[in-house]
Specification:
Oligomer: single chain
Largest sheet: 3 strands, antiparallel
Structural class: alpha+beta
Number of domains: 1
Order of helices and strands: EEEH
Strand order of the largest sheet: 1-2-3
Distance between the termini: 12 Å
């Protein structure tokens, strides 16, 4: 990773709950580094949160900072 780059590790849990003749997804996202847990009522909320986190990181590092992922 480049100097000053940030990375996140999350544990993602998904399950369904019955609601009015259908099943809705519930999501729990746990930050592995901090232990912080956040619940979401659906995928849209989860994606909005992840978009917010990455946008804040881009602002902190500067838009020109990119990290190369090695596999």
């Amino acid at each position: 990773m480049s100097k000053g780059a940030t990375n996140y590790s999350f544990l993602l849990r998904l399950w369904q709950v019955p609601t009015n003749e259908k099943h809705d997804w519930r999501i729990l996202l746990e930050n592995v580094q901090t232990g912080e847990k956040r619940g979401f009522a659906g995928l849209e909320e989860l994606l909005a949160y992840l978009s917010q986190v990455t946008a804040e990181t881009n602002e902190t590092l500067g838009e020109g900072s990119h990290t190369k992922v090695q596999g």
